[in-house]
Amino acid sequence: MTAPLHEDRPAGPGRALPDTQQGMRRRNLARVLHAVRAEGPLSRAAVASRIGLTRAAVSTLVDELIRSGLLEELGPERPGRVGRPGSALALSGRGPAGIGAEIGVDHLAVCAVDLRGTTRSRAIRQGANRGRSPGPVLAELTELIRRVVAEAEGEGLWPAGLAVAVPGLVARDARTVVRAPNLDWHEADLGDLLPADFPLTVDNEANFGALAELWLGDGTPRDFLHVSAEIGIGAAVVVDGGLLRGTRGFAGELGHVPVQPDGPECACGGRGCLEQYAGEEAVLRAAGLEPDEDRVGLLAGRAAEGDEDVRRALRDAGTALGVALTGAVNLLDPQSVVLGGELSGLAPWLLPSLRDELARRTAGPACPVSVSRLGPQGPLLGAAHSVVRAVLDDPATVAERA
Ligand SMILES: [Zn+2]
C-alpha cells in the first residue's frame, strides 16, 4: 500500500494532468519525487516498491529526474546488504529553487529555498512602505530578488519561479493587487513591475502563512483556521489540506468582520471591524502608546514588564479576536485555530481572553488554539515553498526548462 503522494495543492492555479501517456509519465515523475522527499534517501528498488512500479520503469523516470537536476545520487548504499548495492537517491541541493518575496508594511524580504526545503539565501530591507506607490517599492524588491537569485546561482541553483506575499486582496490572475489598504495600493499589476525571467505568483500573505503552517508546522491538521496580523488582520481557511479561496479569491478577511456594529469607522467603509480592536495600531492606541517601527516588540516588551495598560489592551484585543473567531468556528468547524505572523509574539497576553471567549460562545466543544512556531517568517517561507511544491507536484514543467 502506498501513501497518498499528491495531496497538498500548490498556491498557484491547480493543473489537472491529462489522462494520456504523457500525463501518466508526468504523474509518475511526481510520485518518484514525492517518495524520495517523504522517505529519502532511497534506492531505485526502494522507490519502485514504494510507488508500485517496476524497477525498470522507475530507473527510466529517475534517470530523467537526475538529468534535469531534480534528483541526485549520493553513492552506494551501506555495504553488508544482500545483493548488488543500489545508489541512494536524494532531492537535489543544486537544482531548481523557489524564490519567495514578501512586501510588508514596514519591510521587504526575499529568500531562496531549494528542493530539500532548505533556505539557501535571504535578504531583508527595513523601511516604511505605507503610502509609497508600487513602482519604487517593487524596484527595491527587484534589487533584493536579483541579489538572492545571484547568490543562489552561485551555489548551483536556478530559480523555478517567484511567489510574492502581499498584505492585501489579490485577483484570481495571481498578479493584480486589487486593494491593499495598509499600503494604499489599488489595482496594481505587480506582473508589470517585477522581473519577467521566471513564472510569477502573487498571493495574500495570510494564504502563504497558512500554507507554510500546513507544510512546515508541527503536526498541523488538514482543517484549520490560520490567523495572522501585522497592522491588518488576515486569516486563511484550510479545508482538507487546501486553501478555501472564495469566488473572487478574497476569502479570509477576518479583520473586517464586525465585532461592534456601531464601533469606529474602518478603512474598508464598515464600522467596528475586528481590525479596529485587535490590529497592532489599535492595540497601541488603546494602551496609550505612540506608533513605533517595532510595534510588536514594543507591546511585548511593555507587557512582559507588567505594564497594566498594555496588558489590558491585549486582553481586550484577545476578546475581540475571540468574538470574531467564534463566527468562523461555528460556521466552519475547523480542527484548530493557529495564531501566526506577528500575532504569535503577543500570544501569551492574547490567548487567555481569546480562548475564554471562544469556549464561552462556540456551540460544540471549544476549538483548540495554538501558536505557530514559524512566527513572522510564515508568509515568506510559504511563498518560497509554494514554488518548490509546484515543482515537486509536476516536475515535467521544469524538467523541460532545465
Ligand atoms: Zn473594516
UniProtKB/TrEMBL annotation:
It comes from Streptomyces chartreusis NRRL 3882. Transmembrane segments: none annotated. It comes from the Bacteria. Residues 30-81 form the HTH marR-type domain. Residues 1-24 are annotated as: Disordered. GO terms for molecular function: DNA-binding transcription factor activity. Residues 1-10 have a biased composition (Basic and acidic residues). SUPFAM superfamilies: Actin-like ATPase domain, Winged helix' DNA-binding domain. Belongs to the ROK (NagC/XylR) family. This is Making large colonies protein.
